[in-house]
Write a structure and sequence with these properties.
The chain is mainly beta. Helix content is 7%, strand content 33%. It folds into 2 domains: 95 residues, Beta Barrel (Thrombin, subunit H); 100 residues, Beta Barrel (Thrombin, subunit H).
Length: 245
Amino acid sequence: MAGSLLLSLQFLLLTLVLRSAGQEGDKSGEKIIDGVPCTRGSHPWQVALLKGDQLHCGGVLVNEQWVLTAAHCLMSEYNVHIGSDQLGDNRSQKIRATKSFRHPGYSTQTHVNDLMLVKLSRRARLSSNVRKVNLPSRCEPPGTTCTVSGWGTTTSPDVTFPSKLMCTDVKLISSQDCKKVYKDLLGKSMLCAGIPNSKTNTCNVRLHPSLAPDPLTFPPSTIWAPELGAEQFFCTPIASQGQFS
């Protein structure tokens, strides 16, 4: 199942809800600039992948026993917390996982196809706080408003990691306009989103293997995944746009 599901997912742009497990004061990491706390229960598909009791990465629940995350988040085992937008919430479902399957086309150099499925040791219990994510069937046009969510730092250049899930709205930007900023760094499967002439943004600075961008959510609750690049991917305050895949 894992292989066929990964192959089908390679044609979709899927959400990754990821953040650093780095210590406070580290200037590197993903960011949700000018974000606000998400409405409680508005992202019931988001999960946290912990290494011990420390947040390692995030992901989304694609069905009761499978979580989608980033291929570079590979570990031998995971503590998966599901069902809360508050880190450390004792009410969340806690499930171990030891099996994970990277996308067969994943590249450690370019992070193309940075997708991985993690199989839970038991099925998650679906409820109003735990839901499977809706997968997209088509690309949305430039100008579409999207919600970015995650536990990334809400300030830049200094870092402030929140314990509550944060959200901010951005708009899709055309490939032509995005290439004016990223030029050859923009791959064919990537897209840009942001608010021109605004500080609202998501981005990565000095990427570390445990870091990744935050997710874009398109109405109605469809999912798209940010695409990781190399360390050259920085915030772009002039255009206020971030790069996704």
